[in-house]
Specification:
Layout (H helix, E strand, L loop, with lengths): L2 E5 L9 E4 L5 H14 L8 H5 L4 E6 L5 E9 L4 E9 L8 H15 L4 E7 L3 H9 L3 E6 L9 E7 L2
Parallel strand pairs: 5-6
Antiparallel strand pairs: 1-2, 2-3, 3-4, 4-5, 6-8, 7-8
Length: 162
C-alpha cells in the first residue's frame, strides 16, 4: 500500500506529492519497476530485488488529481549522503516542469530523512536533468567515464544542505 510522505508547495500546473512505495507489496514493486523501465530505457534496467531488499526508497509522484505523473527514489550512501536515482516523468506529462518538481520533492524527502548532502549521477546525454539540477543549486563534482559499463558516461552532481 502507498502512504503519503510529503506535499510540495508548487505552482498548480506542476505540483507533485510523493507517495512512498511499500517494498513489501509485490504488486506495487512490480508496478514501479515496469513504469521506470518502460519510460526510462536504460542499459541497466531497474530490478525488483533492489527495491525488495531496501536498497532503494521509491516514491510515486502524483499531481493534484492523484494521477501518477512520475517516480523517483533515493539510496542512502552514508549517514550524511543520499543519492537521488531513477527520476522518471511519464511521457504524457513531460514539458510541464514536473522533472524539476519531482527533483525538488525528492530533495525535500532526503532533507527530512536527516541527510546533509544529496548527489546524483546523470548520463551525460540527459541534458534536461543536468540543467534542472544546476538551476536547483547542484554543482558538477566530477565525470565518470565508463561508469557502470563501457560507453555509459555520467556526471556526478551534488548539493550540500546549508
Amino acid at each position: 500500500m502507498l502512504s503519503s510522505m510529503s506535499d510540495q508547495t508548487l505552482p498548480a500546473n506542476n505540483a507533485v506529492r510523493l507517495v512512498a512505495l511499500d517494498a513489501n507489496d509485490d504488486d506495487a514493486v512490480d508496478a514501479v519497476v515496469s513504469f521506470v523501465n518502460r519510460h526510462y530505457p536504460s542499459e541497466l534496467p531497474l530490478a525488483r530485488a533492489g527495491i525488495k531488499h531496501g536498497h532503494y526508497r521509491f516514491f510515486w509522484a502524483q499531481n493534484a488529481a492523484n494521477d501518477v505523473v512520475g517516480a523517483t527514489a533515493y539510496v542512502p550512501r552514508t549517514r550524511f549522503l543520499a543519492e537521488s536515482v531513477k527520476t522518471v516523468v511519464d511521457p504524457r506529462h513531460r514539458q510541464q516542469g514536473l522533472g524539476a518538481a519531482i527533483s525538488r520533492a525528492i530533495e525535500a524527502e532526503v532533507r527530512a530523512a536527516g541527510f546533509s548532502k544529496i548527489m546524483s549521477t546523470i548520463l551525460i546525454t540527459n541534458i534536461p536533468m543536468i540543467i534542472i539540477k544546476l538551476r536547483q543549486g547542484y554543482l558538477v563534482e566530477g565525470i565518470h567515464m565508463d561508469h557502470e559499463k563501457p560507453g555509459l558516461h555520467e556526471y556526478s552532481l551534488g548539493k550540500v544542505f546549508r
